[in-house]
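sanity check this:
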Amino acid sequence: MKRVYIGLDVHKDSVSIAWALAGTEEPKSYGKAPADLDSFLRVLRRILKKHQWSKEDVALCYEAGPTGFVLARRLLHLKFDIIVVAPSKTPKRSGERVRTDRRDARKLARYLRAGELTPVHIPDVADEVIRDVCRARTDAVDDQTRSRFRLGSFLLRNGYHYTGKSRWGTVHMSYLRELVLPDPAQKIVLEEYLQRIDVCVEQVERLEHQMRQLLLTWERRLFVEALQGFRGFQLVASMTLTSELGDLTRFDHPRKLMAYLGLVPGEDSSGTRRRQGPITKCGNSHARWMLVEVARSYRLPPKVSMHLSKRQDGLSREIRALSWKAQERLHRRYMRLHRRGLHYNKIVVAIARELVGFIWELAQLMEQPARTEEAA
């Protein structure tokens, strides 16, 4: 059992520190320390030395936020006991109307002592690097989509509407580049939009190339390749989901992974009344978004297409069988929910939730050879 529980309210420029001793004493505030890692560590060592506490006596925590996990990794490297907690699951008192950094630090120390905080996973450095690249690629695609919308709106306002079958392909881009507008200033606007789209397309291609290069040396490469054997999962979706979730074997049941992703329905039940609402949307929103996008492909009848067959080349029989089982079960469930008249978005979320179970099973399947080697 720890003797001291330290709560940290971490901000860009400062860190508020408070501690709670084991027992029932009220937490005490120390004050603020600089957010710079070296300066903060000097303050922390000064506190430990003054009160004659050792590293083994102390447990620390702070809430996940925009400052990331750099502080947690540094403290873990120095053998401190530290957790990063989920802000959405930190208990809140209904009567609290005053909120300051000091109060937040004391509150974290109190709840850490009581064991009422929910820790989040601290990703490895390699996972976080790849996650940053995947998110940058998502941002680049968003910029590309917005630039295309703006160009389309500009042309529609001026009476131009492309009637071809495929938009933003080679034929469509040739049409746009050769388009003649009545005013030279409007032609300049058109060229600016086209150049912006070209920049976004090149940025997406560079980031995807970087993702392929990073995959070659990533320790999770085998899982990414196995995940691509599932319908809807190509390189981008597989790397994005794997980098966001990390090691899935830390979840001992698929329902915990579903809850972690916020794909389970909320509930407000009392007595004999049971009422379920929308999904909780807790946890990693980026991974949840990617799963919902992939789940849309399971509305189609089960099929091993040419592209999926290429991605499954070299995978084991068990992984291919699991992929086919997922296709059959998820499509059958999609059709059953569709016949009940459920809204399309609700159906897709339900399919995404069940797809998580197959991904968890894949992680367990990939882990079995490693366990066998360790046992031998």
Residues 184-217 form the longest helix (34 residues). The longest strand covers residues 14-21.
